[in-house]
Structure formats: C-alpha cells, structure tokens
Specification:
- The complex is a heterodimer.
- In chain A, strands 2-1-3-4 form a four-stranded parallel beta sheet, sandwiched between helices.
- In chain A, helix 14 links the parallel strand 7 and strand 8.
- The longest helix of chain A is centred in the middle third of the chain and has 23 residues.
- Chain A is built from 15 helices and eight strands.
- Chain B is α/β, with parallel strands linked by helices.
- Helices cover about 55% and strands about 10% of the residues of chain B.
- Chain B starts with a helix and ends with a helix.
- Classes of the chains: A alpha/beta, B alpha/beta.
- The interface between A and B is large, with 54 and 50 residues.
C-alpha cells in the first residue's frame, strides 16, 4: 500500500500546548468573572454574538467514546443517536472539564436527537441555564428567517443580562471580522486538497477545524495563517490513492475511527460535507448593513441546509455533486450514526442518485462501539479495492 | 363479507347499495375470504362488537377506506392526504365541505385500523416501506411512515394532488415526505412550526410559536384553496371547527365516563378507534356520523355502568396510559385486561385540541389563530416540565395506582421524554411507573409473553402498594 507522507504540520507545538492548557486557562478566566457559554454544534449558533458579549463560546462536540455514549443511556433511550447521548453522558460523568464549566447552554433546536439532548440537560441539570434557539425547518422561507432572527435578538438580550455587557453593533462587526478570517483560512487550507497532491489528511483538517471550537479565536487565526503559509511551501508527492468524499451528520471531537480506517485502507478523504462537529467555513458572514440580518441569513438561509430541513435533499445532493467535480472524487463514504433517521433516509437518496452517475457510495453506521472496527474496516477495504479496480 | 359489514355497522338499504363498491374495493386491496374470516374473529375477540357505537365507529373507517380506494374511479378530481398531527385536518375538511370533487384523508390511519386492527395484514405494507428508504433494523424508523411509504410502493392508493404535514419536529416525516416527492412525484406542503420553549417558561411562551404556526396554517388554507379552486373562507373553517367541536364533546363525554367507571366499562382497545376521527379530515356527513357513534356509545356504556358491568373486576388496579393506545394492533391494551389491569385514563385524548377551542369559540375571530393557540396550549407540545406537571396533576385528579409509560421507539419526538417522566412521577407520587418500549404502529415489535410477565409484575406491585 502507498504510504501517506502528508503528516506533521498539525497541530504545531504552540497550538498543541494551548489546547492542552485551554480548559485550565478557561477555568481561571471564569473565576475572574468571565462567562463560559456552551453551545451544541450544527453551526446554527453564531459565536459572534457570544464573543461580542465578552463571554467565551465553547462548542460541546465531543464524541466517539462509547463510555460517554453509554453513560447517557441512564437517562436517554438508545433510539437517540450516540452523539446526542454523549452530550448528556459527558455531563453526567463529570470527567470532561468543558462540559462542567459552562454557565449557559445555547441549544439550537436542530434535529430531534439534539432537541432531546437539550431537554434532558434542562431536566437533569437545572443549575445550568438553557437558551433554546428555535430553528424552523424551512430554510428558504421568509417567515422562518424572521423567526430565527427574532430568536437571535432574544439570545442577545439573554447574553447581555447574563454578562452585564452591552452587545453593540461595533462589537458584533469586529467579531464577524474575526470569525470570517477564521473561516477564510479554513477554506484556503481545505481547498488546497483540490489538487492531486493534498498537503494534509482529512484527520488533520478536521482536527484543525475542531480546534477552532476551543482555542482562543485570535490565537487560532494566527496559527491557521502560519500553517497555511507552511502548507503552501510544503512539497508533497503525488497521491495515487482513490479520492473520497466524506458525507454525514457528524464527526465529533474524538470520533476519528472512520478517518483512520479509510487511511489504513488506502483511501484518501479529500473533502468533507458534515453537519455537526466541524465549523462551517464555506462562506463568510456579510459584515455590513444590518448585522443581525447578516447573521441570520448567514447562519440560517445562505448556508447548505441541514438534512432535517424541508426540501433540502436535492440541494444537498447538488452540493455534493459539485464537490465530486471540484475535488475529482471517485467514491463517497456516507458515515452516519446509528438511529440518525434523517441521514439514514437520505443515504438511500444519495446512493440512488450518485450511482446513476456511476459514483459508488459506501454507507457506514456507527454507534461508537469499539467492537465494530473490524467489520467496518473490511467494508472500507473492499470499497477502496473496488474503486481502485474501476480506475484501472 | 356481509357478516363483516354488519359487524361494522352497515345495515339495511345501505348494506345492499354499498355491496358492489365494497367488493370492488376489496378486490383492489387484495382482501380475501380468509382475511374476512380473520377480521371477524379479531373484531369479536378484541372489541365490544355488541355495542352499536363501536360498530358504527368501525364502519366510518371502512367507508372512508372504500372512498379512498375508489376516489379516482368515482370521479374525485382532487385528492388531499394529510398528516396525523392537529392542524392538518381543518383546511382539508373545509375543501371537502365545499366541493364534491374533493376527497381528503389520512390513508395510513385508515389502513392501520382496517388492515391492522381488523385484518392483521399490515406487515407487507410495512415491509414495502422498509425496502425503500425506511429500512428495518437498529435504526428504528417509525413504522407509521414505513406504512405511509409502503402504500405508495404497493400502489394501494392513488398519488394525491397534495400531501400536507405539520413540522411538529418529526424530522423523518419531513424527510420521507420530501423523498416521496422525489421518487413518486407526490406534491407536498409543510405547515411551519417551531417549538423552543424552555421549562421555566411554562405555562407561558405561547405567543412566538403559536403566531408562527398561525401563519403556517393560514398559508396552508390558501394552498388548499388554490388547489381545489375554492376559497377556504373563515366561515367555512369555523363550520368545520364547530362540527369537530361537537364530535369532540361527544368523545370527551365518553372518555369521562370510562375514566370514572369501576369496574372499567370498556377496554382501552377502543380508545383510538373512537378518538381517531379527529386525525381525519372528514366531510360533513362523516363528522356527524362520528359524533353520532360517540354519543350512541356513551349511552350504551352508561347503561353498562348502571348495571355494574365491566371488562375487569371491580377494584382492579387503575392506571394512566402515556400516549394514546395503538390504532394498529389491539393486543397490548387487550392484554392489560387479561391480567386484570384497568387502563381508564390516557395522557392525551385525540379530541383534546378540538375540545380546548370551546371556551374561545366566538371570541377569537380568526380560525387560524384559534387553531394555532389551541394546539400550542397543549402541555404535550410545550416541554418536558410542562408534560410532567400535567401528568402529575392528571394522576392526582384521577387517583390512579400506576402509570404505563408506553414510549414509542420509532418516535424521536417522544422517546427521549421516557426517563424524565418516570423520574418525575415516581418521585412526585410514589406510584409505580412501568416504562415499556413499544412500537405502537407495528405489531411485529410486540411480544405477548414478555409483556404479559411485565404486566403481571406491575399489577402485583400496584396491588401490594394498594394493600399497604
């Protein structure tokens, strides 16, 4: 098998140290009165608002650990997906500092699973304040946009009351600028994988992207900038590995089994289309005019609609097809979590439509179970071999 | 066939005139002589067929099913299918009121009652859905949606001109509806809805969600009006609302009687058969027939109560059932009676949304507002805390000895509430709560012997608590 030689630039030592010490640092900051605002992933909670309030946003996106997912089973049934159960399990276990330090949880009402995770948090952990951010499931509807916009205004009010800081337009504008820089750099790095010699692996890119949920945003931007410059200079040999697109509801912080197995099998994931767990970096938020409207549009309407949105499947497929073309993709890994009913239904649609265009799709389900590694590996091995055979 | 039809309330002239239609419909649906024999046996086993009200109720589902199957053949020009959730029915009903060219229904509910409860013949329909995007297995897709899909896959129902649903938070209904559009060309409409109320807002937080739903309902009425070429006026909607309210009151009277009866006067197997009408967008005559069925049943049961007649012994442990009883298979609720448990109180009456409108009729001038607010006031739709508060109050008011928490594994909206409900009720009342994972739309999930053991233990715990 061809050895993958594109490792080592992520994380740089200073970022690794920063991330290692980040929880302790935040705890100290919290002692001095700064509020820590946790939020559930899916890219529906504008971090800009939290940042502009003087609080620190932390995305609660851990997953992949069967221990935490199983801990959740004591209060939430198995039919709720392992990622959502993990969000409850981590809190119950009291082992993860991030889950223990949040002052408010902002819970976007995205899929049924994350809604339930929020409900269960609210019931079992009444000492943590919760703000439920309504996400109407009609992304291209004006009244839905207005509903979301009004809820963002209510969130602003809640954050102001909680932090005692006024959220001004100027502060929001600065925050948008900061996070736009982050998005742009992630985009620049990610798009380097369009070439035949991708300078970093999917695991590296996802780790980098996820670091942005926890690291200090200014430090993150600076680090991304220097990593990007270095990647541009890096010489990488041409990869002969089959180029793959990874689609799915979620890659949690720590759920890297699928990425490792694809790599071991000789495949190369060169682009991802994921809903939760990674920062949406595909476009910037408009930083002029009515900034609340900009945030609402950017986070709700002008993005790729999530699978739970009405009428989203064709649009999502079109986007995936554009990735297939732009990134020269030979196959699709559709990675879903067990009991994620929308993605499971959508996998049927993707498979049918992609196969009509002669693009093979492999659907993999995970319950964060350590025992499924072997059979998932076998399936990926076979898939990669089939693609290789087809390419000859 | 005639015997079956008589069991389902068909009589005299109507029986004769309907027979050719019934034969045609049964042929198209593949109902065989064996099915009919099984159907008669099941009706007599699980239901009180000696009660005229019960026979009439089954007859309404039968007739609606025949109307659906023969709709195109009999010249209906527009077909509207709607979802089960409150809010989907009224505008479609109004269209049926206004035009003989329109037929509206919830196909899957008709099949669940007729193919499920009566014929026990739903399995091939469920499996047809599983062969498409709602596969079987650990993902536990909702069986109701599998059946709705299976009906199209097996071509048991015609493709409608509109399929409408409400975005109550069921992601799969929305997704499956979209894919039905992609693969079968079914035009869909979604009534916008969004719930983000927090526990601490209870009982408030009404306006933002109700106003948003009101807007969605208004657009839905407009869409239906455009489809059938008739304006769905406020007056027309109020007429539907009033008729449904009358039916709701009749059902509420029946339910209040059941709730207080000791011995339990009728099995909970009947609950969704009598209450299920509220999920259908019925025409004028059918709504009146459903009111009549509930009223007749009420009078018959009153007589039974006076005679002290019941389906379990007097003083049997009484329980509250969470979520409505199954409208697909009657085995679970029947088994409760077999082991001597009286399920007389349910968390949600299917008529509750309609009945709630009573106090505001005449005051609220906009029918969409009236509908949206009555739906939005339901504690089941609010938050876990609201649901728990409501259940605690209901248990106290009715003095039940235990709670059967039937949590529906295929339903992501309700499944996650199971443990907090048990926690709150156990701590708050000290009564036993049996958490039972069910798939209320799929009898394949039901294991009689395993469930019997659970029910027997549950009964014994309640009895010993009572004795203590």
């Amino acid at each position: 098998m061809e050895k993958n030689d594109r490792r080592s630039l992520w994380p740089p030592i200073d970022m690794a140290t920063h991330l290692k010490n980040r929880a302790a640092e935040l705890r100290e900051t919290k002692k001095k009165g700064t509020k820590i605002i946790g939020y559930f992933p899916g890219n529906y909670v504008p971090e800009e608002l939290i940042y502009a309030s003087g609080a620190i946003p932390i995305c609660l996106a851990y997953g992949g650990d069967p221990h935490a997912a199983d801990a959740g089973l004591s209060v939430i049934p198995r039919q709720i997906c392992p990622f959502a159960r993990t969000q409850v399990g981590e809190k119950l276990l009291k082992e993860n500092p991030y889950y223990d330090m949040v002052d408010i949880l902002v819970a976007p009402m995205t899929c049924s699973h994350m809604k339930k995770a929020a409900d269960v948090w609210e019931y079992y952990f009444p000492d943590i304040e919760i703000f439920k951010l309504g996400i109407p499931h009609q992304y291209n509807d004006e009244s839905a946009l207005e509903y979301y916009l009004n809820r963002l205004k209510a969130l602003k009010q809640r954050l102001e009351n909680f932090t005692g800081n006024k959220i001004t337009n100027e502060k929001i504008g600065k925050a948008i600028e900061l996070y736009n820089n982050m998005r742009r750099l992630l985009r620049d790095v990610s798009f380097m994988r369009k070439g035949l010699n991708p300078p970093l692996s999917s695991l590296e890119f996802i780790s980098m992207n996820q670091a942005s949920f926890y690291a200090d945003p200014y430090f993150m931007v600076n680090t991304l900038n220097s990593v990007y410059q270095e990647l541009k200079r890096k010489k990488v040999s041409r990869s002969e590995r089959p180029r793959l697109l990874l689609v799915g509801p979620n890659i949690a912080y720590g759920d890297y089994k699928i990425l490792e197995l694809v790599d071991e099998s000789g495949g190369e994931i060169v682009i991802e289309e994921l809903f939760e767990g990674i920062r949406d970096y595909w476009r910037d938020i408009e930083n002029s005019g009515d900034l609340f409207h900009s945030l609402a549009k950017g986070y709700f309407r002008d993005r790729l609609p999530a699978a739970f949105m009405a009428g989203s499947a064709p649009k999502r497929l079109d986007f995936a097809m554009s990735l297939v073309k732009d990134f020269n993709i030979s196959g699709v890994i559709f990675y879903e979590l067990l009991c994620c009913e929308t993605y499971d239904a959508e996998s049927y649609f993707y498979t049918k439509r992609m196969e009509e265009r002669s693009i093979p799709v492999l659907v993999i389900e995970s319950e964060y179970d350590v025992s499924d590694r072997g059979h998932i590996k076998n399936r990926i091995d076979a898939f990669v071999e089939i693609i290789k055979g087809g390419e000859k | 066939m005639i015997e079956l039809l008589k069991l389902c309330g068909f009589e005299g002239q109507e029986l004769e005139s309907e027979l050719p239609r019934v034969k045609k419909a049964f042929d198209q649906l593949g109902i065989t002589v064996d099915d009919i024999e099984r159907g008669k046996h099941r009706l007599n086993k699980y239901y009180d067929m000696e009660l005229k009200g019960v026979r009439k109720a089954f007859g309404i589902y039968m007739k609606e099913l025949f109307n659906l199957v023969l709709a195109k053949e009999e010249g209906k020009k527009k077909l509207i299918y709607v979802g089960l959730f409150p809010g989907c029915q009224e505008a479609a009903s109004a269209a049926v009121y206004a035009s003989n060219d329109v037929f509206a229904t919830v196909p899957v509910l008709l099949f669940q009652v007729v193919f499920g409860c009566i014929f026990d013949k739903l399995k091939p329909i469920t499996e047809a859905g599983e062969k498409l995007w709602l596969k079987s297995g650990a993902v536990t897709h909702c069986a109701l949606l599998k059946q709705a899909l299976g009906l199209y896959a097996l071509k048991l129902i015609p493709i409608p001109d509109l399929q409408a649903g409400r975005d109550i938070g069921c992601d799969l209904a929305l997704k499956s509806g979209n894919l039905t559009n992609e693969f079968f060309g079914v035009p869909t409409f979604l009534i916008g809805d969004c719930n983000d109320r927090e526990n601490k807002e209870f009982p408030g937080g009404l306006e933002r969600g109700a106003d948003y739903l009101e807007n969605g309902l208004r657009r839905y009425s407009r869409r239906v009006g455009e489809l059938v070429g008739i304006e769905i006026t406020d007056q027309l909607l109020f007429e539907v609302i009033q008729d449904r309210l009358n039916a709701g009151k009749a059902v509420a009277r029946y339910q209040a009687l059941v709730e207080k009866s000791d011995p339990l006067v009728i099995s909970a197997t009947h609950e969704t058969i009598v209450g299920g009408f509220f999920q259908l967008p019925l025409g004028r005559n059918s709504i009146k027939a459903s009111t009549d069925a509930a009223s007749v049943l009420y009078e018959e049961l009153k007589e039974r109560v006076n005679k002290g007649k019941g389906v379990v012994e007097k003083g049997a442990p009484r329980i509250l059932g969470i979520l409505p009883s199954s409208c697909t298979y009657p085995d679970l609720e029947h088994l409760l009676n077999e082991v001597g448990i009286a399920l007389g109180v349910t968390e949600t009456s299917l008529a509750e949304f309609d009945v709630r409108r009573d106090s505001e009729m005449g005051e609220v001038k906009d029918p969409h507002k009236l509908m949206a607010y009555s739906i939005w006031q339901s504690p089941v739709c609010h938050s876990i805390q609201a649901r728990n508060n409501y259940l605690l109050g209901l248990c106290k008011r009715t003095g039940v000895d235990g709670v059967l928490n039937r949590y529906n594994v295929g339903c992501r909206i309700t499944v996650g509430d199971a443990f907090p409900i048990k926690d709150a009720l156990t701590k708050g009342l000290g009564i036993p709560v049996l958490n039972l994972a069910v798939e209320c739309w799929d009898s394949r999930y039901f294991d009689t012997e395993q469930t019997r053991r659970k029910f027997e233990l549950f009964r014994d715990i309640m009895k010993s608590k009572k004795a203590a």
